[in-house]
Amino acid sequence: MKNIVILISGRGSNMEAVVRAAQAEQWPARVAAVISNKADAKGLVFAAEHGIPTAVVSNKDYPDRASFDAALAEVIDQFAPDLVVLAGFMRILTPAFTERYAGRMLNIHPSLLPLFPGLHTHEQALAAGVAEHGATVHFVTAELDHGPIVGQARIPVLPGDDADQLAARLLVEEHKLYPRCIRLFVEDKLVIDNGAVRILN
Ligand code: GAR
Predict the structure, then answer these.
(1) Which of 138, 174, 182 to mutate to test the pocket of ligand 1 (most atoms within 8 A of CB)?
(2) Cys-Cys crosslink for 181: which of 9, 105, 137, 191, Cβ 3.0 to 4.6 Å?
């Protein structure tokens, strides 16, 4: 049984989708903990209601990124993670942190990477006038919103779309994409080969 530790900063709807899929599809893995950098993250309530251990490591309690990341890693490691899942975890991570979990940390980003890294991805997509938008699941490396891509989901940009409409339509797809990618990881089907992901049958 693999241990998944999920990091959130807010709503946690992707975390919820992963918890539900792991149970419904009987993955050889369990969500061992949900950890937030914000005490009022809504997702913590869902996790607690589902009997999942929760923890808060507030970045406000630490003077710099390095000390916060070190404290966070200490809490994460108490749950012996095989995989760390960033699910709306809105922090820039230090190289020491990304190195510690290299090859075993995934992120979901709401754009078709390498397009639109960073914040406000739906606004960026609308401003660029793209016909398609999407979400990307990737292994986390030191460079923000880069790293070997595991999977992507696409949606059309429709006439009249605003950022909220795009975000809402994309979220539905994120909730399918992220569990699908994480399941591949826990079933040992992902290999990183020369900086690219190969999916085994
Ligand atoms: C999701 O749309 C996720 O892709 C995005 O934040 C949202 C979190 O929603 N992540 C990022 O922007 C990371 N850079 P959730 O808390 O309901 O899962």
Answers:
(1) 174
(2) 137
